[in-house]
Amino acid sequence: MMRALWTAGSGMKAQQFNVDVISNNLANVNTTGYKKERAEFKDLLYETMNRAYVLEDSGKPVNLQVGHGTAVSSTVRSFESGNVDKTDSSLDFAIEGEGFFTILCPDEEVRYTRDGSFKISVTEDGMRKLTTSDGYSVLDDAEQEIVFDTDVDISTLTVTPQGAISYKNADGETVALDQTLGVVHFPNKYALEAVGKNLFERNSATGEPVQAIEDTSGKSTISQFYLESSNVSIVDEMVKLIVAQRAYEINSKAIQQSDDMLQIANNLKR
Hints:
The structure is a single chain. This protein is α+β, with helices and mostly antiparallel strands and 270 residues long. It has 2 domains: 2-79 and 259-269, no CATH class; 84-228, no CATH class. The chain has helices at 2-27, 234-266; strands at residues 37-43, 46-50, 53-55, 58-60, 64-67, 70-77, 84-86, 93-96, 100-104, 110-113, 119-122, 128-131, 137-138, 147-148, 158-159, 164-168, 174-180, 183-185, 193-196, 199-201, 210-211, 221-224, 226-228. It is elongated, with a radius of gyration of 27 Å.
C-alpha cells in the first residue's frame, strides 16, 4: 500500500506539471508567433515479482510486474503555423514556412524568432536600424544589422517574399538596399530552447542554421503587412486542462484510498 501512495503521488506531480504547460499556452494565446507546447510522460521503474518463462513445453507465459508511477520526460513544441493577420504597418512581417528571423541580442548572441513585429530604433550616430520591440537588432542574411540612411523614407519600405529590401526615393523610383532579411532553417527545430521575449536559442541538437534561400529541402517566404498569431487553440487547451484536472483528482483519491487501507490494517490489532 505504501507503493500506491508514492505511485499516485508521482501522478499528481506529473499532472501539476501538465497544468503548468497548458496554463502557459493559454497565457500566450495572443502572443505574436508563439508556438504551443505539450508535456510528454514516461512510466517509472517496474518491480518484477515473477518473470515469464518456458521450460520443456510448460511454464508461465506472462510476467507479474508492478510499476512505480510516472514522470515528465519532455516538453514538445508544435511549430505548426498560426493564423496570419493583416496589419497596417510596413514593418510587420510573417514567415510562411519553417523559417525564423535572426536577432542580435545585447550579449552579442544571435537568437531566433517568429515574431515579425519590428520597429525602427535610432542609433547613436543618428542612423536608423530595424529592431524588435525590445530594441534588439534584426539581422540580414549575412548576419549584419539592417541600417537605413537618413534619406530613406521608412513608410515606403518594400520587402519581397524572398526578403529583399527596397524603398522609393523622392522621385518615386524603387531603390534596392542590397540587404535581405535573414531567415534561417534548422535541421532539428524541435530542439530550440525558448528563452523568453519571443526568442529561441539554438544548441548542439538543433544543428547549424541554414539560410532559407540556400535550403533546398524547405521553403520559407515573407509576407509584409502581416503578422503570425499564436497557434494555441483555446478549445483544445481547455479540454486538456479538464483532463489534467480529472487525472490529478483521481490520483489524489488513490492516495486517500491507500491511506484508508493503511488505517484499516492498523486497526486490526484492536
